[in-house]
């Protein structure tokens, strides 16, 4: 969602900075730049997985993840949250055409719900999914495949995935989706998305209905 349908505006990095402070790492710490670079390179992946890789200790990773959620959800509740222009309209257009839409994220389910509540998107999509028990986060294919099962999609060749990170692209490719499109409203540039194997690169998710042949 962040970077694809929801404008990020630095909220993830702000929340990471607050979270990593629970492990004694400040912005002036020599370790901070490499950690921030890792966060940028793994945008789209499950946040607890990122903290486990950075900290190598489960208790420390859980503390950082809890603080990340607290800080990010606080920013969202304070109004620092906006949709990517045209994203809501694109989703409504897709659904009106009979296309089923799932919103997926690397955030915890509670953080995803905070975003949906802040934007008034509780009923915008057919399904909202986050990593959890039995559903691994990106770049594993689980989020797409779980959406396929829950929405009773009959053919993976009729599935399209769109996202702003290489992890999104890999998730789509590994699931067998016919379209794994990158968008340029978030973490990665055109070259990164193409290097990850993107089947298409769009300026925004607002262009997705046109790509899929949905009349406006």
TrEMBL record:
SUPFAM superfamilies: HAD-like (SSF56784). It comes from the Bacteria. Transmembrane segments: none annotated. InterPro entries: HAD-like_hydrolase_sf, HAD-like_sf, HAD_sf, PhnX-like. This is Phosphonatase-like hydrolase.
């Amino acid at each position: 969602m962040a970077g694809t349908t929801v404008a990020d505006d630095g909220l993830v990095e702000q929340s990471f900075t607050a979270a990593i402070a629970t492990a004694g790492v400040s912005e002036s710490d020599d370790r901070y730049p490499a950690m921030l670079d890792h966060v940028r390179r793994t945008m789209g992946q499950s946040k607890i997985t990122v903290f486990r890789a950075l900290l190598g200790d489960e208790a420390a990773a859980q503390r950082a993840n809890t603080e990340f959620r607290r800080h990010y959800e606080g920013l969202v509740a304070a109004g620092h949250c906006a949709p990517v222009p045209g994203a809501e309209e694109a989703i409504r257009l897709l659904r009106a055409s009979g296309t089923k839409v799932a919103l997926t994220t690397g955030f915890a389910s509670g953080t995803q719900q905070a975003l949906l509540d802040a934007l008034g998107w509780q009923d915008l999509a057919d399904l909202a999914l986050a990593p959890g028990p039995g559903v691994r986060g990106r770049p594993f294919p689980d989020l797409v495949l779980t959406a396929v099962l829950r929405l009773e999609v009959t053919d993976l060749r009729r599935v399209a995935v769109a996202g702003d990170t290489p992890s999104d692209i890999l998730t789509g490719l590994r699931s067998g989706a016919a379209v794994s499109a990158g968008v340029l409203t978030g973490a990665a540039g055109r070259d990164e998305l193409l290097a990850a194997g993107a089947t298409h690169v769009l300026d925004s998710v607002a262009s997705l209905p046109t790509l899929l042949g949905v009349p406006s």
